[in-house]
Structure formats: structure tokens, C-alpha cells
């Protein structure tokens, strides 16, 4: 992305800013929040995100500062859009690439028509269980902590809405997709269930959030691009004060 100053406006972080960030691969959502919060020091501002992205996912993360953090729940509740890639013919305990493949399946007889048809049960109002390796809390402890300790937990199903589940490329074992869904939808669980619907296995290998509500990934900042801009503006302001 361009680093020209024309891309940036005069931010008022204390009053409240909504920042669209392209979350990097393997960063946690909290990593992004922390990086931006640290760049704003010595200002002591509330900074939060509206909707977690898994570390292995990339794409649109909405960050709110100052008084706008009071609206985080509103932004978080909006419809989301994702694009990604799944691997057919195998499963992992985490439903993605965080853990190693634990089972493999024969995909030689699966047809493209069967793959397209397998999305249909997952369009509309559906129920799903969160992955055992997820940030959902059970008795105050996040599931992924229990999963990594090898503890068994009782997963509670949730109801979500998926207006769109489209297959966009089939090059087995890879399948590309686009999904539009409600708040709280676990794409990893959706992909795992998709594999089961084919009497097979599937796990998520790539995921990007491209939209949240009316906010688009194409209008987002790179994290370090924004952080460097903020720091440069602080240095300019300090130099003017000392002049």
C-alpha cells in the first residue's frame, strides 16, 4: 500500500477513531491492538478490536480508539465476508494448520458436482460447535488452553446465519471459497462440517476477512504503515514545540 501522507487524515484518537487494519499472518488480534496502543503513548487511551481473527487468518480487523470503543459491540455484530482455501482429504484437531494432520481420506472419487452440492446444507440458519482450539471461554478458561493441555471439554452449539457459501476454485486437494456469515460463525467448524458432509475430511489452510458490515479490506491500513505515520506525526509535533 502507498505510504503517501495523502492517504492519512488528521486523526483525533482521544475523541475516537475507527481504524481499518489488515491483520498480518500469525499476529493475534491483541498484537495489533497492543502495537497501536503503544504507538499512541504517552496518551493513555482505550484501544480495542471489533471481532477477533485467528492468528493464522489475515484481513480486515476493525480497531476503535477513545470514546469510539463504546461502539465496539455494534461493529462486531455486523455481517462478515471471508475468502479462503480448504484442504480436502484430511483433518487436523484444530480444523486448521495450527495442528498436524491426524487423519487422511481418499478423495479420488469425489466429483466437482458433489463438492458444489455439499455447500447447500450450510446456507441459511445453521447450528455449529466451536472448535476445541478456539477462544471461547468455558468456566472462565479459553478452550484452546484446555485443548493444548489435552483436557476434554463439553462444547456448546451455537446458531448462526450463512447467506452465502460459494466454491470459487477446485484444484484438489485445494478448494477456494467465499463465505458471508453472521457474527460468531466459526469458519473452521464450517469447513470441518463441509468435509464430513462429503463423508470425508477437510481443514482450513488459508482465510482472509474481506468485509465487516460496510467496511472493506481494500480500504485498510497495514499495521506498521499506520504506526510509523503516528510516530512521525508525534516527532513533528515535538520538533515544533521545541522550535
From TrEMBL:
Stretches assigned to the Pseudouridine synthase II N-terminal domain: 46-187
InterPro entries per UniProt: PsdUridine_synth_cat_dom_sf, PsdUridine_synth_N, tRNA_psdUridine_synth_TruB
Keywords: Isomerase, tRNA processing
Keyword set includes Ribosomal protein: no
Active site residues according to the UniProt entry: 54
CDD domains to which the protein is assigned, alphabetical: PseudoU_synth_EcTruB
Role summary: Responsible for synthesis of pseudouridine from uracil-55 in the psi GC loop of transfer RNAs.
Name used for this protein in its record: tRNA pseudouridine synthase B
Organism: Pedobacter mendelii
Lineage: Bacteria, Pseudomonadati, Bacteroidota, Sphingobacteriia, Sphingobacteriales
Encoding gene (name): truB
